[in-house]
Amino acid sequence: MRVVSGIQPTGNLHLGNYLGAIRNWVAMQDDLGDDGECLYFLADLHAISMPHDPAELRAGTLEMAAALVACGIDPDRSILFNQAQVPQHAELQWLLSGTARMGWLNRMTQWKDKAGKNREGQSVALFSYPVLQAADVLLYQATHVPVGDDQKQHLELARDIAQKFNNDFAPSNEVGDEAPVFTLPDAIVPPEAARIMSLRDGSRKMSKSDDSDMSRINLSDDADTIMKKVKKAKTDPEPLPSETDGLAERPEALNLVTIYAALAQTSAEAVLADFGGEGFGKFKPSLGEMMVETLGPIAARFNELKADTDTLDAILAKGAARARERAVPTLARAYEALGLVRG
Ligand code: TRP
Q: 46 in ligand 1 pocket by Cβ < 6 Å?
């Protein structure tokens, strides 16, 4: 098994990021053991497809690396790196651009959403973003790619590109002993990546860009701050119901129960079986303690690592060297299959 996944580097990481992609990556690394390898990277090349600030990109890349390590990605077991240090990603993207079709890219919902009515004004990189994403995984012969629901379509496209490339340039001969250039990867979409909402408004996602810091639990928050934020979280005056149906019209209550369940790795039903009938005066302190227990040690390591750019640079350099080693043979086969002469 070879697991490959990427995440866009952003700053101001919070509980939503942890319970979304990051915790899932750690679980895959831990479950895989010696049965395979995980390559996890920061998609800094993807980040330049939208307007961006260079200093923020650099800081965000290091911050995301610090967060991943603090959350449990072990850079000795997993290969942790950023795309920019592995030029084979950009090289393979170009080679695959000969195979990807305009029509395929035009159908991508992320392109349609991000471009809106102003397609002519978008960068070429935003349009060809999914081709780079295909290169990211095909370069390593990935077998499994953990992604959120919104990235499933991009993974399908990566398979289509791999299939067409294999057909066009490495057709298996009659005895079928010619290996295809690329492995077709399977997407792994976690059953239900918890949707974590703002602590001030249960109808909005928890977000790094919300004006109110009280709306989110940052990965850098200490125990006192976490407790304060949970106690001040918006709620309603009713006690918790004993069934999830009773949360239907209560977005803030639903959010807190969802967070509790996600942290305790249990279901909302199980949380309500314990807390149904209780008021928030009782529930909130338990939720706060649960958060402090999980996030406290993460915050301590995160804050320490974030300030230690030498260590982070060394981790990323080592990961990139290991990634390059694995990328080189596949890239060479792709050049060769296309008839490109490299001396
Ligand atoms: N586009 C993905 C996202 O925004 C990040 C990403 C880039 C990725 N390359 C990838 C995910 C390759 C999986 C595999 O979430």
A: yes
Where along the chain do its domains lie?
2-194+309-338, 213-305
| Main-chain phi, psi angles of 263, to 5 degrees | -70, -40
Write the pLDDT tens digit of every residue in 124-177. 999 999 999 999 999 999 999 999 889 999 999 999 999 999 999 987 666 666
CA distance 228 to 288: 8
For the Cβ of 166 lying below 6 angstroms from any atom of ligand 1, the answer is no
How many whole angstroms from 255 Cα to the centroid of ligand 1? 26
pTM over 0.85: yes
- Residues with catalytic roles: 114, 205, 208
Ligand 1 contacts CB of residue 5 (under 6 A): yes
CA of 95 to the centre of ligand 1 (A): 19
Considering the domain 213-305, what is its CATH architecture?
Orthogonal Bundle (1.10)
3-state secondary structure of 81: strand
For ligand 1, is residue 43 a contact (CB within 6 Å)? yes
Structure tokens belonging to residue 278: 């209780």
CA 133 to ligand 1: nearest atom = 9
Cβ contacts of 277-283, under 8 Å, gap ≥ 24: 277/239, 277/240, 277/242, 278/239, 278/240, 279/239, 279/240, 280/235, 280/240, 280/253, 280/256, 283/240, 283/256
Write out pLDDT tens, residues 235-272. Answer: 999 999 999 999 999 999 999 999 999 999 999 999 99
CATH 3.40.50.620 fits domain 2-194+309-338? yes
Reduce the DSSP state of residue 4 to 3 states and report it.
strand
Confidence at 11, pLDDT banded by 50, 70, 90: confident
Query: Whose C-alpha lies nearest to ligand 1, atom 13?
Result: 5
Tell me, yes or no, if the two domains 2-194+309-338 and 213-305 fold the same way.
no
